[in-house]
Amino acid sequence: MRKVQCYFVYLQKNPTIMTKNRPFFILFLFSFFQFFNFSNSFAQYPYQNPKLSPKERALDLCQRLTLEEKVGLMMNHSRAVERLDVPVFQWWSEALHGLGRNGNATVFPITMGMAATFDTLLVERIFTAVSDEARIKHNQAHRLGTQGQMYHGLSFWTPNINIFRDPRWGRGQETYGEDPYLTAVMGKSVVRGLQGPMDAPYQKLLACAKHYAVHSGPEWNRHRYNAENIKLRDLHETYLYAFRALVKEANVAEVMCAYNRFEGKPCCGSDRLLQQILRDEWGFQGLVTSDCGAVDDFWMDHGHHYSQNKTEATSQAVIAGTDVECGSSYGSLRDGVKEGRIKEETIDKSLCRLLEARFRLGDFDDPHLNPWNRIPADRLCCQEHADLALEAARKSIVLLKNNGILPLNSSLFTLHSSLCIMGPNAVDSTMMWGNYNGFPMHTITLAEGIQNICPTATLIPWKRDVEQQVQAAADAQIVIFCGGISPNLEGEEMDVKEEGFKGGDRTMIELPKTQRDVLDALHKAGKRVILANCSGSAIGLVPEQETTDAIVQAWYGGQAGGHALAEVIFGRVNPSGRLPVTFYRNVEQLPDFEDYNMEGHTYRYFRGEPLYPFGYGLSYSKFIYGKPRFENGQLSLTITNKSKWDGAETVLVYISKEGDTDGPIRTLRAFQRVDVPAGATQAVSIPLPDSAFEWWDVKSNAMRILPGEYILHVGNYKLKVKR
Q1: Tell me: the pLDDT tens digits for 468-516?
Q2: Residue 221 within any structural domain of the chain
Q3: Catalytic: 281?
Q4: Residue 657's beta-bridge partner residues?
Q5: Active-site residue among 356, 363, 391, 490?
Q6: Which residues contact 225 (CB under 8 A, 6 or more apart)?
Q7: Which of 291, 296, 356, 505 is catalytic?
Q8: Could you confirm whether 544 is annotated as catalytic?
Q9: Per residue in 253-267, pLDDT tens?
Q10: Do residues 337 and 416 share a domain?
């Protein structure tokens, strides 16, 4: 091909050749177009022919590789095979809420904040932006020859669709909350945004549903924990619900198996999870990757004591269906074949799935043929993406309490002493990035956002001395207290020495004691206090019901979180976020952290009185629901905004089944955000297809659409329907 290109350059410099050597030139043109049209068909090997299907190409390449080369391709850092022009490939990249761990990128609110928006189209737009930035970074890495480095690849281990069943779990901030349906629809939006249109000539990225399955803490014992004696109903109705949706409805490319055991077997060695359910029942055609070091947990001292040694562990993992290992132990598969623990044909089956995914990405083809390689570099951290991050932050904020103090009027604060800002999170920019984060070009902290709107607001440095804090605010009329916790305290398997925290998890759910004491002292000093709470999970804010005038849940708001918070506080944005988790009063309301049965967990099975329920969120508007009707698979109602504020209301539709005493009290099956102008009435129509009435069938031990009587819960209305 290069010779042909060189000849064209020569022709351009010597145009007379085309007239003096016309027969030769005609023959050349004919030969060139034959080459252009059919060269792919006559590539050196079939796997190099883009006209063949990814599966055909994968099968052809696989049979040309040595065993050594095969196992080298099955680790997250997949080695190049130069003799066959197989490039290096990196399976481990992150994009939890923006391109992660790969330099500058747009940082969106943590996924728990995205869930609070109840806006699936917004989430798909966010991850379309994320996949643009990911492709740009990969294209840059490819030009520099660093595409094989960690976090520079096209395989992204997100979304985390585990159920946030207990607020003590530190990684809950990475999920989309405690509800299976909400998690499923948000997860599908993530996959669509990352992977691109299904009919595109090449796949944009590979998304990964994790961690499969039954994994939501504790962090400290995850490498040896055994999830057993879980009710079959809880398994399918709660823990597997979102995974099934992403496999069957979103074509997710990858599934990551979890660290823990399930019914005695490590998840990455569970034939029931990986074969019977994932592939046989759901028809999954993609690949399975291990969590990082999960295969080592099979046999190492800190782990499950399931395998005798590395060779046995890696053989067991591949036989069960784990195709890629995050780690380097799969190199021992060579010994597994020699010792008769695993057949090379079994390795080939896994390898072909990996190669097929790479062919779908265009990893072996001319990069100029791939439209995703032509995304302009100036879209990285562009204004459009920054605006999207701000929109997401605005919609994520949940107003939990307001005794009338909000919104503030910034024009009333003419003196520096009348409004002050304090608290440990006031100027902490890295807190706002959450975990698994990228690095924004600029982060607007909470204090910066407030002072941008109200320049006279005074910032008071945070100290853990209660008397000093109260004295510093002596002249203030109103205090905006920027509190909560941070990703330095809650997260993945962390070494934290603070009271109330263990291994990344929490042992108590209240605010840290110093913050509670300062808020109490400010209240006793007669200050009006607005608490801006930052966290990735639920906080037990019982004392703060007495010591504050307003509570705003700001999560970890990303690069624009401070801007969005200030807009809500000063009334430039009407809050519209809803809680995707239950805010309990204290840990006494919670079952044992290690109990994975759903009884007592989440709004679906919790029978106590929470502090703030799932779906809760105040507005500056007052919305009135009209009586709902259900006909021909459509739920219809009206929403009236009886206020002077334009606002957005999220209509949540729950379902319960008459006579099902073992099932959820109610469970979310539809929702819709509705913009309602001030004083207006908006008609709402929400589809409830047959799939919304899929329920647990005790006779077949499966989820299926069951006939019977159901109750629809909408606002304060209950509507009986028969299916």
Answers
A1: 999 999 999 999 999 999 999 999 999 999 999 999 999 999 999 999 9
A2: yes
A3: no
A4: 710
A5: 490
A6: 218, 259, 260, 261, 594
A7: 291
A8: no
A9: 999 999 999 999 999
A10: no
